[in-house]
Amino acid sequence: MSGRIVILNGAPRAGKSSIARAVQDSLPGHWINLGVDAQNAMLPEALLPGIGLRPGGERPDLEPFVPGLYLALYDAIAAHALQGFDIVADLGHHDHYSRPLDILPACARRMAGLAVLFVGVRCPIETIMARRNADPQGYVAGPGVPDPVRHWQEAVHVPGLYDLDLNTGALSPEACASAIGTALAQPPEPSAFERLARL
User: Fold this and answer.
1) Is-above-0.85 flag for pTM?
2) What are the sequence ranges of the domains in the chain?
3) Under a CB-based contact definition with an 8 Å cutoff, are residues 63 and 82 in contact?
4) pLDDT tens across 137-171, in order?
5) CA atoms within 13 A on the CB side of 109
6) 3-state secondary structure 119-167
7) Is CATH 3.40.50.300 what the domain over 5-192 is classified as, yes or no?
């Protein structure tokens, strides 16, 4: 029997990594996190930020590699699930490159026949900025909303087809994991990935 797959999609600092940890800690099963951080940890400097490339067409020179990196990651997710492992992956899908790359529908088609719960992780931009300013991680903290943060907020939830929406401005990671557990027990028909695969 194949494992379950949860794809968490949202902007940086929306709380995806915290939800992934809560899923690993609180839901039954052997959950492996195969998200953007796991993939980027394996990449050479020349390919970074890999699938973490920001919206806005900032690095057209890297864009030819991004679809392949996404598809390879989804192939790895599928391979682990087919071995019976449960997978949680925290990602930031968008199609705001220098030209459309249509990555999300291609990834959804890679998951044909597998149980995938696609979760929109939404967070008010004020909360994202508060988290960013509290822990800048190399960015300049301060008032206002930088353009890259605004671009992420606008681009990451297009087209917005999800099986479950979570607001991390109102819900703790543990509450989000509980909602995911409930949704896994009652999978939608058709799933968001089945609809996305037809785009």
Assistant:
1) yes
2) 5-192
3) no
4) 766 667 789 999 999 999 999 999 999 999 999 99
5) 9
6) EEEECCHHHHHHHHHHCCCCCCCCCCCCHHHHHHHHHCCCCCCCCEEEE
7) yes
